[in-house]
């Protein structure tokens, strides 16, 4: 898979969660999200227990609450959508603080907020304890289609290359006195975007030719064989198993 690739969501550490094989963490997070989504929205207490479970996992992983909360800002759009639901949904109405709100809309907003927040928090916790390279190895270990893994790998590696190219082009424009201030400068920016596309396409062709010259035949060599012991699987699946017990109680009560 090539050299390691750090990302902004990753938090370096040596916790037990950091040391778990990536495919066990991927499977655990996927199972946890499935359990959360399967929980009835009326079992509000269950979502509080899920939050406590995630908090415990973050504590074991040595991920600070502030770090986790700042990364949760990515769901702001979902929050805005949820806030609008009680106003636009139809059905039985109820007065709350002088406003007429839909009962179905209130339940729908709660459902989106609770399940969405827990899912995003679990994903952020996974990203904070697993490097991108390890995630790709985990997906490969879980038998995801190799072509999809390769596409994801190339996107990760060359995303930074393209970003750095954009930065150099911006510096070149600014060194020549250019500063975008209005619509009349859109033409220059459009030409820059076109030049960036051409450079990226040409770079991709060169990379492909270099790979073929080195024996690439449609699959990447597996350098690290990632395995997991039964104890590691048990440790990783403790979170979704506990969540499953809560979910079953939510349906029973």
Automatic annotation (TrEMBL):
Superkingdom: Bacteria
Transmembrane segments: 44-65, 72-89, 109-128, 233-252
Membrane topology: Multi-pass membrane protein
Main subcellular location of this protein, as a coarse class: membrane
Keywords: Cell membrane, Membrane, Transmembrane, Transmembrane helix
InterPro entries to which the protein is assigned, alphabetical: ABC/ECF_trnsptr_transmembrane, ECF_CbiQ, ECF_transporter_component
CDD domains, per the entry: EcfT
Name of the protein in its database record: Cobalt ECF transporter T component CbiQ
Record bears the keyword Transmembrane helix: yes
Subcellular location(s) per record: Cell membrane
